[in-house]
Amino acid sequence: MAAPSSVRLHVVTGKGGTGKTTTATALALALAGEGRRVLLCEVEGRQGVARLLGTEPLPYAEVEVAEGAGGGEVLALAVEPRAALLEYLETFYRLGRAGRALERVGAVDFIAGIAPGLRDVLLIGKVYEAVRRTEADGSPTYDAVVLDAPPTGRITRFLGIGQELAGLAGGGPIAGQATKVAELLRSPATAVHVVTLLEELPVTETAEAVAELEAAGLPVGAVVADRALAPLPGGAGDDAGSAAGALAAAGLPPEQVGALVEQARQHAVRVAAQQAQLAALTALGRPVRQLPALPGAVGVDLEGLYALADLLEGGLP
Amino acid sequence: MSGGAETTETTGTTWAVWDVDALLDDPGTEILVCCGSGGVGKTTTAAALAVRAAERGRRVAVLTVDPARRLAQALGLPAAGDDAAGAPRAVPGVDAAAGGSLDALVLDVRRTLDQLVDAAVSPERAAGIRANPVYESVASSFSGTQEYMAMERLGQLRAAARAGQQPWDLLVVDTPPSRSALDFLDAPQRLSAFLDGRFVRLLSAPARRGGRASARVVSAVAGGLAAAMDRILGARLLRDVESLVSSLDAVFGGFQARAEATYAALADERTAFVVVAAPEPDPLAEAAFFVERLRADGLRLAALVVNRSTVAVPGLGPEAVRSAAASLASAGAAGGEGAGPAAAVLALQAETAERAAREAELVEQVLAGEEPLAVAVVPVRAGDVPDLAALRAVGADLAGARPR
Question: Does A297 contact B324 at a Cβ distance shorter than 8 Å?
Fold first, then answer.
């Protein structure tokens, strides 16, 4: 396991609805809590980070969204393919006016839309630029970049852009850029973390994603089990029947007592099912981190987010 | 619009409960579209509605998009990628006593696109299109191809039913897990924007018009742009795209007309839309967006389905739990048996009720300020193994039957 500080780019993926954005944001906050300067990127135009933090929608610019202890801070950026393309044209071709002309005739939409391979290289090219950017004294601008990445179903293709583009765009400058990006993604400076719920379908998809990522030579970091349920204290779930007498003595009518006992039993069944899925995740041979289901919460508020960040102290391996 | 004026007893909220059976039994309902963001149980909802409709006597086909392996097994579908997966086949175990039937199929994007190409151009041109390296990329990953092909496949199924080649009187459609759930509706327009885009016209103009003098000015402009594009993308890719775009023109010309006919069918009363969500902020925000869009387009919105909902024991609010816990604590001090587990059971109810109340608030936000919308709440289940029995149970939940 590499020391956390050696990873510069944390890619966070997961099946839709498993808590990918929450985990990416909590990880960025945890790293900032150790005094680091962190950039949190999203690339899918969902504005999930802004919704989570309760801020205005993120622009195509790096804006500070949180401060951590010891001078750490989190900046956030929503990478958008059209803006990334125009910036790319400006930087590499100085195509100021010609770039705008291309936009007027719809070429920018065309390039950004013709194939996700091209779109993806623009998106991840911007993330690559942020990882590699340095200050005047040569020190890196960001200690770490956290990417709220596309879901597991598309992640290997998203990160594997190098080959696809080399085949399609053979020899073009964008293909050259893709090769450099692919080098970073396959190096120990990158870790791809997979977020899952402790349910059969997401766990199966996680196992498939880990196998695919490994086969593509992409470094898998941790597996994060989100919304893990805690068993009832004192084994009360498995032994819910013994509570019935006391509940009746406390003045509850029989039908409510029965329903409460059944609810506790169902909870125990769900906990046991989660434990079985946890065992399946552990068998993948990657470090597994659990994040608890926040009691009574639906979604995650700021308080909950910082609680999760505390649990990710030290980052992810 | 279906839906009674009942209120749900479990949460004390005031939304109308969806009368799903009235919709399914109405022979005027010919297409049912399930939409929503990814990961909310959309495919399962579509399958459960299809099973319920078939067992109530409708002759149903359900078109699924990328079903999870276990759900595909439950529907008797071959594994994804299997050649036969794209063809409709009868779902085993469906109760046909009411005279209904159920066929299921998976959307096969590549095959549907190949069929479009074959139907539109000569075999030689079709072979040329397939040999183009960009075609593979368009077929497998062009943003929106899945949406276009879902629309095309729905059109094919509808045509087969109308021509009497298939017995179906109800098509249940799952939509692709788009980042934006709206892509499904936008497919024909987006395709037309792509083909009619000025840039694509410039690219393909020389090829369309040949070398006539009138085309020279156009070519010069296109040439200048093409030079810039060459520098960015590489010349070979540009050539491949150019040749593909001009040969796909004929293919998508026919597609466009059919997609518009399908869209017209979606827009009339025979089609009902069901918006599926999970009771969390992001999926419900997307659901709200979708509800707004369907209404803006004048489409028939049947209900909002909230999957994996938390349901607490009814009639035991925070006050009642606190008072029961207090009696328990005094009994516990007196050494009452089972007081420990009982306290834990009550704490679980308190937490569950709190969660259920927050979920209900979020659902209320989706409904707020709009005309009434029927809601179906599907409780979270222990274990998530989908088989036919589980799909029937989900169908019963959708119809408002409470499991407890």
Answer: no
Could you tell me the end-to-end alpha-carbon distance of chain A, in angstroms, rounded to an integer?
7
* Alpha carbon distance A105, A197 (integer Å): 45
* Of A4, A18, A28, residue with least CA distance to A130: A28
Comparing B94 with B267, the larger pLDDT belongs to: B94
DSSP A64-94: EEEE-GGG-EEEEEE--HHHHHHHHHHHHH-
Which segments of chain A are extended strands (E)? 9-14, 37-42, 63-67, 73-78, 144-148, 190-197, 220-228, 288-292
Pair A165, A121: CB distance under 8 Å: yes
If one counts every other C-beta atom within 10 angstroms of the C-beta of residue A150, the result is 23
Q: Which residues pair with A226 in a beta bridge?
A: A197
Q: What is the edge-to-edge ordering of all strands in the sheet holding B89-90?
A: B89-90, B101-106, B59-64, B170-174, B31-35, B271-277, B301-309, B375-379
Taking contacts as CB-CB distances below 8 angstroms, the residues of chain B near A295 are: 351, 354
**What is the pLDDT at residue B351?**
92
Which pLDDT tens digit goes with each residue over A157-186?
Answer: 888 865 566 555 555 666 777 788 889 999
B24 and B141 in contact (C-beta within 8 Å)?
no
Q: What integer pLDDT is reported at residue A161 of this predicted model?
A: 65
Strands B101-106 and B89-90: what pairing? antiparallel
Distance CA B93, CA B98 (A): 14
Nearest Cα residue to B18 out of B260, B391, B312, B367: B367
A268, two tokens: 């125990």
**B173: helix, coil or strand?**
strand
- Nearest by Cα to B109 from B75, B68, B151: B151
State the sign of the Cα–Cα–Cα–Cα dihedral A151, A153, A159, A162.
Answer: negative
Helices B198-209 & B183-196 angle (0-180, nearest 10): 50
Closest residue in chain A to residue B195, using alpha carbons only? A110
Per-position b or e across B235-251, b if 16+ CB within 10 A of its CB: bebbebbbbbbbbbbeb
Q: What is the pLDDT of residue A194?
A: 97
Among the residues of B269-403, which ranges form H helices? Answer: 281-296, 318-333, 339-367, 388-398
Question: Minimal Cα–Cα distance from B3 to chain A, Å?
Answer: 27
pLDDT at A81: 79
**Rounded to an integer, what distance in angstroms lies between the CA atom of residue B72 and that of residue B65?**
10
Instruction: Say how far apart CA B183 and CA B148 lie, in whole Å.
Output: 9
Contacts of A23 in chain B (CB under 8 A): none
CA of B138: which chain A residue's CA is closest? Answer: A115
Q: Locate B180 and state its tokens.
A: 């934006």
Query: How many whole angstroms separate alpha carbon B346 and alpha carbon B60?
Result: 45
Contact by Cβ (8 Å): B98, B51: no
Question: B-contacting residues of A 161-200, CB under 8 Å?
Answer: 164, 167-175, 199-200
Task: Choose among B17, B91, B1: nearest CA to B54.
Answer: B91
Instruction: Say if residues B352 and B310 touch (Cβ distance below 8 Å).
Output: yes
Prediction ipTM score: 0.83
One-letter amino acid identity for A139? S
- DSSP per position, B233-260: H-HHHHHHHHHHHHHHHHHHHHHHHHHH
Euclidean distance between CA atoms B333 and B248, whole angstroms = 81
**Is residue A236 within 8 angstroms of chain B, CB to CB?**
yes
Taking the CB of residue B48, how many other CB atoms lie within 10 A of it?
29
SS3 for A148? strand
User: Do B293 and B182 form a contact (C-beta atoms < 8 A)?
Assistant: yes
| Binding-face residues of A in 52-71 toward B, CB within 8 A | none
How many residues are given for chain A? 317
